[in-house]
Write a structure and sequence with these properties.
Oligomer: homodimer
CATH topology of the largest domain in chain A: Aminopeptidase
Radius of gyration of chain A: 24 Å
Low-confidence stretches of chain A: 1-24
Number of helices of chain A: 11
CATH class of the largest domain in chain A: Alpha Beta
Chain lengths: 459, 459
């Protein structure tokens, strides 16, 4: 009994010592990782290539295919043991080149309006759609108007992102309902077309596109989005009775699915090669900009995670994969294909980390796992304080890694600061120049730090 | 004795209740403040005026005088009870218009170099200075070269900001020694001129100016700074023996002091009007850019602190002053004059908060006060978590409010994220467009929150 008590005492005394011994070496490793990225990071240069040499990368487009080749090359260059392409069938939506729009004013004149088709939307007839405009703030207002107020008209959803939401993703989630469901809800009452106020946190002249989702119970209406500035002007013109009608033509269409690829680069684990850690972003982007923050940043950061391991001679105990997911924006086929393959490969998919919230200064990570895993995750929090990335919250992951949850994979979402994201998201302003190299690299550094911890300690 | 014990118990039980009762109303007040700023903030529009209508505001320049008038107007508009100008004599350094510089190459050709005079530096003779270039990494290297290696030459300090410092101000502090003391240290060994690698965290084509400080024991050398990109090129050319000489001419001179002003706007406290809280930024800026982040941001945020109080009908218990300090950049005369006046006015200067680290997304506050004051400050920390501003650290303040420390004033420095600051600091790239309205306003909101707490609870 006495020796048992001594053992117990020893354990109690030892436990913190062991953990104290563990921590410094983790903190030193993370420091080395962050310094390597801040000093020699390749993410920013890779992002330049992705934005300026490849450009827009909508699923099925030539840009997306070039991006597959380029990131496969980047993964090789980063030192991945193996690089492969994982096929998936992706939707092939095209905007076409004939978009045009006018506001017909009560004065008899017309003024051009920059309206862009929502992703996955159908095109108008060749002659376009024309109708009176009925502005609604939200679905409740639409419901009150009903068929008498809506039929034969163009519905203009003017729901702004709530500026008082400090976490801008919350405001995006609220306003996103109108882009997603607005066309079908308007079709239900007999509208002929839909105009959406762009989901943007600032007031400027860029329309922000993004996917809409048709409900098969209703006709598919052509749907466009206009900039927040144009939305405010149109709303003011409507209030003062200056608008007679609106006309727009879109030439969008959904072509048959085509084959595309996730791009995967792997460093094989030394001790547990069959325990797999995934870190990724999505390779496809909308067609209007360069997809710099969304999600070129997440791709080049994930490549950087592999590069920094190789550059520092770190041999991870568990396998680390950087994955460029295809088709997050308008289908998620890449994420689904990856999870499907993971389900069948006989490996243990321990942990997946996604960066798809922009290349901004790091704030922390969200985490979805078992309570025990969450406690382990929390125990690492202080290691990220020196890098401003210690906001560790329960919940979170990413669209592309979401399909892995049923496999028991713990998921994490990298959380950069969100204040500027929706200024550029899905718009022509999402370009390389909007990304700060230090912010991008600091993010890559903390992502690599978290991946390192899981690779060494498991989860 | 028993009733005393009961009283004690009551106190122990009550204490948390009181504090629990206090907290929700504080958190509600801060929420209202933040929402008001995020919804109706004027700081961004005021910054546009300061950058685009007023422009550069170097002490003694016409821009600085226009800025005095404009911000006085803004303070009136914000609803200050009283607005006044507090005179101070400021140095009047002018760059002149004749700056020019060439690198003379071994090939016999010459190439132009964009070199700009350091603030407060003397001009060259009319024919400029010309000499061989001796590049040093640091003062140790300069000392090793000594007079034999330096005399008659132009010293090129090529000390980069350390990219691995996550807090970029630390890297700035290290590298700043060369801008501040480099000219006099080179003069000590008989150099004829000095070129400094710009204090910038990125590699681009903008020279970043800033003050130098002459040591009166040595001749005053003309001193210029070149962009980080030019510094890397010049260094490479020197290594490969391509550089014969460097020539530069500057037309800078220090004119006699002129009268300028701090601009002060005040809301008088209801309960303790003689307890004064100061919140400020500096109104002067370098001449190359628009002084948007440095420190137009701090000025318009401080004005916003008053505006939001008035807009919400908050009547602070203690007096709140927004102060636009003049001459932080090359003399600190405004800060000294303000402290001098505070010393004499018979009021209790309880607390001063400065925003002079850019209009970036908030991280928290630094604090310098008594241990008891620091504990009170820490007790408010969780109130700022919803706004991402809970990094509360011991130490900090600001250059302009520093002279108030001997008065017993507790000092605080607003701490925004520092990753992008030294990309633009003191350079032509510090323009309105580099500021995010949401980041600027969120910062103003948390500053107003902290000022509110001190105004209601004291310190």
């Amino acid at each position: 009994m006495k020796s048992f008590q001594l053992l117990l005492l020893a354990l109690i005394v030892w436990a913190p010592l062991v953990s104290l011994q563990g921590q410094p070496s983790d903190s030193v490793a993370i420091r080395r990782i962050a310094e390597e990225v801040l000093r020699h990071g390749r993410a920013y240069e890779n992002l330049r290539i992705l934005c300026k040499q490849v450009g827009p990368r909508l699923s099925g487009s030539p840009g997306a295919e070039r991006a597959v080749q380029e990131t496969a090359r980047m993964l090789q260059e980063a030192g991945a043991d193996t690089v492969w392409l994982q096929p998936c069938q992706v939707p092939h939506w095209v905007r076409g080149t004939g978009e045009s729009s006018y506001v017909y004013l009560a004065s008899g004149r017309r003024r051009p309006l920059q309206a862009v088709a929502l992703g996955n939307s159908v095109g108008t007839p060749a002659k376009g759609v024309r109708g009176q405009v009925v502005e609604v703030r939200d679905f409740a207002e639409l419901d009150r108007l009903g068929r008498p107020g809506v039929a034969g008209r163009i519905v203009f959803y003017n729901y702004p992102m709530d500026p008082t939401q400090v976490q801008t993703f919350r405001a995006y989630g609220q306003a996103g309902a109108y882009r997603g469901n607005g066309p079908s809800m308007a079709a239900k009452y007999g509208a002929v077309g839909v105009v959406i106020r762009s989901l943007a946190s600032n007031v400027d002249a860029y329309p922000h596109t993004g996917s809409t989702r048709y409900n098969d119970s209703f006709p598919k209406l052509p749907a466009v989005t206009i900039s927040t500035r144009d939305a405010e002007q149109l709303s003011a013109e409507l209030r003062s009775g200056q608008v007679r009608e609106l006309w727009f033509r879109t030439t969008a269409e959904m072509l048959p699915d085509v084959t595309s690829y996730n791009v995967v680069g792997e460093i094989r684990g030394t001790d547990f090669p069959d325990e797999v850690i995934t870190v990724g972003g999505h390779l496809d982007s909308w067609d209007l900009g360069e997809g710099a923050h969304d999600d070129g940043a997440g791709c080049v950061q994930s490549i950087e995670v592999l590069r920094v391991m190789k550059a520092l001679g770190i041999r991870p105990r568990r396998t680390i994969r950087a994955v460029m997911f295809m088709n997050e924006e308008n289908g998620l086929r890449g994420g689904l294909a990856y999870a499907e393959a993971a389900k069948k490969d006989g490996k243990k998919h321990l942990f997946a980390l996604e960066s798809d919230a922009g290349g901004f200064t790091p704030r922390g990570f969200g985490f979805s796992g078992t309570p025990a895993q969450y406690q382990q995750f929390l125990s690492w929090r202080s290691l990220f304080q020196p890098y401003g990335a210690s906001e560790f919250v329960n919940g979170g992951g990413g669209a592309d890694i979401g399909p892995m949850r049923p496999l028991g994979t713990a998921l994490s979402g990298f959380t950069p600061d969100s204040q500027r994201y929706f200024d550029v998201h899905h718009a022509a302003s999402d370009v390389f120049e909007a990304v700060s190299p230090r912010e991008l690299h600091l993010g890559a550094g903390v992502m690599a730090g978290l991946v390192y911890l899981v690779s060494q300690h498991g989860l």
